[in-house]
Design goal:
- The chain is an alpha+beta fold.
- It has helices spanning 27-40, 52-59, 142-147, 151-157, 221-235; strands at 4-7, 14-17, 42-45, 85-88, 91-92, 95-96, 99-100, 105-108, 120-127, 137-141, 161-163, 191-193, 195-197, 204-206, 215-216, 241-244, 251-255, 259-263, 273-279.
- The strands form 5 sheets. It has an 8-stranded mixed sheet with strand order 1-2-3-17-9-19-4-7, with helices on one face. Strands 8-18-10-16 form a 4-stranded antiparallel sheet. The chain has a 3-stranded antiparallel sheet with strand order 12-11-15.
- α1 (27-40) links the parallel β2 (14-17) and β3 (42-45).
- It is globular and about 55 Å long.
- The structure holds succinic acid.
- Residues 87, 100, 105, 137, 170, 261, 263, 274 line the site of succinic acid.
Length: 286
């Protein structure tokens, strides 16, 4: 098999074929996949059938795994592999087997509420709803979003720092151990610049994390809300996004510091099960 990588017909995203991720991947192929991940921000693989140890082994080609943040239920979904997360609406014996249920997962980047957020995430589809049942996942290119910001919004954002809320997940559920936020000036979570500079290329990208409970430090709450609303409205426009319609066996790898993602709700009578890894970041956001 020979690895082939081609750009998707979207502002971001590439499809990689000719590689079986269940076994060792050659250093040359790992380097080519990593290049596509840097350049195109999302890499899509199809027809992969990976056990959890195989997902872990493939992920470790790109760095050390970053365990999931606290979920609402207070214990890992996979006792054998706490370094993996499960994204699912399925319940067994009345207990969710994974996170996020069947509702919308709002636009976000993963775990930006920590000081050094994961640089990459991989999501592997084990069961998916039928095509018309919903559950598509979207990615938005934050380099493009920054480059196209209106000049006044760019000026207002440059040099500003925002707090990234740790209390809720992207389905809006409170994580175990956190209090609801009633005043965004008290939001608990890491502080990061609104504009990130890629340390390799010097390119600038918006770094927004998640909208709920965000606050731009030093501004009046109303000013902070207005600036954040303007940034989010701009950054999530369809012309900056890729839509992924899942099939069983898909594996997506995304550049967590350079994209936002969201997921459509889906028919609650269908089953969706995905296993996910994250790769530790190695940079503070500057
Ligand atoms: C996530 O936000 O990581 C989940 C995306 C999805 O369920 O497609």
């Amino acid at each position: 098999m020979t690895l082939a990588i081609k750009n998707l017909d979207a502002p971001l995203g590439a499809e990689a074929s000719g590689v079986d991720l269940s076994g060792p991947v050659s250093p040359g192929d790992v380097a080519a996949i990593e290049d596509a991940w840097r350049e195109r921000l999302v890499v899509v693989f199809h027809d992969q059938s990976l056990s959890d140890p195989q997902l872990i082994a493939f992920s470790q080609n790109f760095g050390e795994l970053d365990p999931p943040g606290p979920n609402p239920y207070g214990k890992p979904f996979l006792a054998q592999h706490p370094e993996l997360n499960v994204i699912s609406n399925v319940t067994e014996n009345g207990q969710p087997i994974g996170n996020l249920g069947d509702g919308e997962a709002v636009w976000h980047a993963d775990m930006t509420y920590v000081e050094v957020p994961p640089k990459a995430a991989m999501l592997h589809a084990l069961e998916v709803p039928p095509p018309q049942a919903g559950g598509n996942t979207y990615f938005a290119d934050m380099f493009l979003a920054y480059a196209t910001l209106p000049a006044d919004v760019k000026k207002a954002a440059d040099g500003r720092v925002a707090v990234h809320d740790a209390s809720t997940n992207s389905a809006g559920l409170l994580r175990k151990g956190y209090q609801p936020v009633s005043d965004v000036r008290q939001t608990v979570g890491a502080h990061h610049p609104l504009v990130r500079t890629d340390p390799r290329t010097g390119r600038k990208a918006l770094f927004l994390g998640r909208r709920p409970n965000a606050y731009v430090v030093g501004l009046e709450v109303a000013e902070s809300e207005a600036l954040l609303d303007a940034l989010w409205a701009h950054a999530t426009q369809p012309q900056f996004t890729l839509c992924h319609r899942w099939k069983v066996g898909d594996l997506l790898m995304w550049n967590n510091l350079s994209v936002l993602h969201r997921r459509d709700p889906f028919d609650p009578t269908t089953r969706r099960i995905m296993h996910r890894s994250q790769i530790k970041g190695n940079e503070r956001i500057h």
